[in-house]
Amino acid sequence: MRTSPRRPLILKRRKLSLPAEDAAASQRAVTKSETDGRCDRASIEQHAIDADSDPQKFPAGIKIINHPSMPNTQVVFVPKHANVQNIIAALTAKGKECGSTGPNKFILISGGGSLRQACPPGAQEQADTETSIGGGGFGKAVNDSNMCVSRKLVDVKMGDGMLLHTAANITPNHKPKPEEENSTPALTPCPLDESLTNIQWLGKMSSDGLGSCTMRQELEDKENQPPVPQSLKQVEEDVGSLPCGSSFTSWQESIAERPPYSYMAMIQFAINSTDRKRMTLKEIYTWIEDHFPYFKHVAKPGWKNSIRHNLSLHDMFVRETSANGKISFWTIHPDANRCLTLDQVFKPMDQNPLLQVLPYDPQQKRILPELQKCAPAGSGVKSESLGTSSSTERKMKLLLPRVNSYFVPVHFPLSQQFLQQPSGKMPLSSSPSSSASTADLTKSKHVQIVPKPILQGASTSTYLPLESTKENAVVVSEEAPSAVVKDEEEDASLLSSLKENTSYTSLKPPAWRKHDVQMSTLESSQSLSYVSVKEENHLTAKRDCQFTVLRDDVPLSTWKEERTLTAAKSPARKLSDMQVIRRRKSSSRRKQHLVIPCAEEPLLVFPDCNNSDSGLVSDFSFLQETHAPDHPTDLSSAQDTCPFKTPIKEKLIKLPVSSTPSKPVGTTPQASGSEPWRVTSLNKEGSLPDFSPVRLPPGTTLTPFKDSLDLLGFSSPPFHDVPLFESPQQLLNSKSPDMTSGPFTSSPTLEPHSAKRCSKELPIGNLTNRSLTEGLVLDTMNDSLSKILLDISFTGLDEDDRFDGDNVSWSQLIPELR
DNA sequence: TCTATTGTTTAGGTGA
DNA sequence: TCACCTAAACAATAGA
Ligand SMILES: [Mg+2]
Question: Quick check: ipTM above 0.95?
Fold first, then answer.
């Protein structure tokens, strides 16, 4: 039935001959479940029974009663021994009874009682109250009369903050009147043929009842075996095992709901959830299963195949092996890693008004996960997806629009401190003479600039404006470190890293407060370094940086910072020991030759300004190491080293990355001996290789820049109308009017974030400008890519006595310019 | 040798 | 057309 993964799973309602079930047995079952002493079940049921002294009984002792307080809601008590068929039969029968006017929400309560195992007594009491009365947890049930989705979920508020997703609706788009609730079943037409049961969590289950977990696991090992449903109890246990006190999205709570993330996104989430930004395949499996019970309980085992497929297919996922070659770690290519984590994709809507206007991606039934945030723990914020069939119960607000823009973190090797604040706080104006208040600038200066260019054939490193409008543009290109340090400790730390994968760091409540982030030069270097500074803090990394403010090809300034690697804390360790072992393609099926660390890859130095620069290349280039190529082997195989080989991109840009006949190699002219992928990573539209799980539907334009894309051309000098900033202050005081009206202007907030090894993200110590982080999730890799927004903050310009307003010079800001 | 796991690649389908 | 999903073939590898 489910012919497409995008198609919601719908159980066709069938006429079921409800097997007569011994009422006594049913009652026994229920009673037994009550006497299991699991938290508040008895209380719940008792209360429910009190509210409805005549619960309807269905096969296997399933009882359905009206919710004591919630209209259109019924409580379904599922005895332990009831199987899925029983539940379906009961719901079907109930739905048939009530017809279109019947309750459209059902709260399923399993008789297993294991749900409450983890609940402390106090919490149980609370749960009892909330659940039975229906005011707390039940009250959160979404009851959107306008919702067009066919599924509604009812949360059962658990004692410790957990939410149990248990219910599904029966009648979509129908909000029965209260007086219709108890209508005689036989008297009303039954619309359930189309709708019953969009009960995904049931639908995924096979008809052969509830299999044992063990059996399921055995079969699950065979990836091509159909999934075996788990018992409700097991499911509930797993659900209950989710961390308490955290805010969960429905797919995190429910085994029924498939997470609205692509595999690629989930893999990124998984990998980025670790400090080292790497995971073994098994760890990825585990992480996904832990965070998305759907995959643990419902999804076919073939999802693992898909994971592997994605890992292999997408070039952003790079496999590295331990020094001994026995362990393969999957990492995200530093150029592609935006450090997407699960906690970044949702944020409380009430804390970011901007999000409320953010569009829903019509091309994705699933909400753009990367553009969403979830309510923080305990906030009680229930959200609902923006519009749509994805219809998660909670209100999901897009974090950022799927616009043709994204922020480019700019890493300044400044001795001055950085201060970043939400751009929305920034009274940036379109010109230095604007009304930007000094007071606002006192704390932070933001510059959001630079259109993201789409240029065909662009091949250089600097950003090009998409338009020759009046926008001020700052072009910043920076070399970012991209080395992956490997050493023998990898293996030793494997176990620990395995443990950390299950942490729920991503579930921490988003911090939507401003942070004045400061960093020293050293901190900057460390945090910016792709090497495992945190872990390998004996490394001190400097890197070449190029900072270019362009106007008509005139570089305002550039600097370079020499990057060195030293073994400060571990002198005994030689650099060679820390070489990245990255596989490259090989003839082997388990291909990918071992490659040298990125840090030692040939440096590609782009011209500071080049009309043909796409900016996209810069996006890569500034992330590259600038070491001299001390590994000729890597040089010789520059073509082969392109890790990005998404077929589409390859087809379009002929990236010489393929090791297969279907992926032509070497069709792209070598660009000055540099790694071609760094300079020719444009598809026909000039987009970046797609590292992003976020997709922007063609034609989507949320910023005014889009329309000016066609203004770009190779014949036009970049930043034709871009003023040249004489000073940082001027730069900071200037802002494109478009930006002020853009969707980003009010959103960014700061949140502590580990940013190492993340591209397009400005790590500042352990803190990262939230705006940058969020900006990273924007997909700029597709056709609609139109803009790059620079988010630059200069902290301390006002605090520092050395700086005197507009008198601040670049040389002051950048010591290298002196 | 067998099996399981892991990794790569191709192919086909679906929805927007 | 594209992104994404799913399935599958195939191979390398590790371990029993
Ligand atoms: Mg890959």
Answer: yes
